[in-house]
Write a structure and sequence with these properties.
The protein contains 14 helices and 14 strands. It has 322 residues and is of the alpha/beta class. It folds into 2 domains: 193 residues, Rossmann fold (3-Layer(aba) Sandwich); 116 residues, Nitrogenase molybdenum iron protein domain (Rossmann fold), CATH 3.40.50.1980. The strands form 4 sheets. Strands 5-4-3-8-9 form a 5-stranded parallel beta sheet, sandwiched between helices. It has a 5-stranded mixed beta sheet with strand order 12-11-10-13-14, with helices on both faces. Helix 4 links the parallel strand 4 and strand 5. Helix 7 runs antiparallel to helix 8 and helix 8 packs parallel to helix 14. The radius of gyration is 21 Å and the shape is globular. The termini are far apart.
Length: 322
């Protein structure tokens, strides 16, 4: 495998496939979202462009990248919202990037029927697929598991840029925008999303209800989702006994919380299967949220906590909590 890759790297580097100018196979960078049309303003980024990534690496991009490869599907929404769909992507912990594009609720307004080159799992990147994608730039995050072992090989294909996965969605939006020369677009996205969150906060903070948001750990347990800042941003209150930091809870512990609304932010089929497994329990049936029909399912794509996820979360929370 290593000999094959070394040979392929040599061929690609010697034939100039890695030039910043993309060929006829580049994808259209327009999007169908009406809101995105208003952000495609004249950009003023000067190329070549230099910046330092989250790993402290100095990066120089000769021109605006046209063929973008990302090594985790969480970043799909950042580039789609900027009007710059990616050419290739790894998946996440479950599924492929193509499945994400076809199923994520956050990406519904941005689907154009294009196919994304599959780079494998985010936990096991397919280097040959990255090479064949001929990217202008490769994007992932600082601390990506297993990245150190392949970082040098990836850099032979195209510049590797590391983002700060723990930074705010606003700053990650700006970081992605800097890569593709869309700084003005990023500020418009941030402004519109913050306005949607502020509107939701005003509406939801007036409701005298508490909300418990969970994932199910693959259908096995209640796992707290979100953070205290997340709850505060939307003006929602957690029930007494609910703690953040991805804590795991038993059914009995959730019953003691007795939330007014029980929201599963997970793959819907997995979450519904998990709920089905609880229905025989009187402990489950006697919770207020269950008795009042306030067990709700939000799409797993909201777990990215990116700009599209935050905006959709605002809408769905307002639809749910009355």
């Amino acid at each position: 495998m290593k000999k094959i890759l070394s040979f392929l790297f040599a061929v690609v580097l010697s034939t100039g496939f890695l030039s910043a100018c993309s060929n006829g196979s580049q994808i259209n960078s327009s999007v169908t979202s009406e809101s995105s049309e208003s952000i495609h303003t004249l950009e003023t980024t000067v190329w070549p462009h230099e910046f330092v990534d989250a790993g402290g690496n100095k990066i120089t991009l000769a021109g605006q990248p046209q063929r973008i490869a990302i090594l985790h599907s969480n970043y799909l929404e950042y580039f789609y919202s900027l009007g710059v769909p990616v050419i290739a992507s790894a998946g996440a912990s479950v599924g492929t990037a193509q499945q994400a594009v076809e199923t994520y609720e956050t990406l519904i307004p941005y689907r154009m029927g294009e196919k994304i080159i599959d780079l494998g799992s985010a936990r096991e990147i397919n280097l040959e697929a990255v090479l064949e994608a001929q990217p202008d730039v490769i994007i992932t995050f600082e601390g990506h598991s297993g990245l150190d072992e392949i970082y040098d090989q990836l850099n032979q294909i195209a510049p590797v840029i590391l983002l700060d996965f723990k930074d705010t969605w606003q700053n990650q939006t700006r970081a992605c925008a800097e890569i593709v020369g869309k700084k003005e677009a990023a500020e418009q996205i941030i402004k519109e999303t913050e306005e949607a969150i502020a509107f939701a906060h005003e509406e939801l903070s007036a409701q005298d209800k508490n909300v418990a948001i969970f994932r199910t750990n693959g259908g096995r347990a209640f796992v707290a989702r979100g953070s205290s800042d997340f709850y505060a941003a939307f003006g929602i209150t957690a029930p007494q006994g609910y703690t953040f930091g991805y804590e795991t809870f038993s059914l009995e512990a959730v019953a003691d919380m007795n939330p007014d609304y029980l929201i599963f932010m997970d793959y819907t089929d997995i979450a519904k299967g998990f709920v089905k497994s609880q229905e025989a329990s009187s402990v489950w049936r006697n919770m207020e949220a269950v008795k009042n029909g306030n067990v709700v399912y939000f799409d797993d794509s909201l777990n990215t906590f990116g700009p599209l996820a935050m905006r959709l979360t605002a809408e769905k929370l307002m639809e749910t909590i009355k």
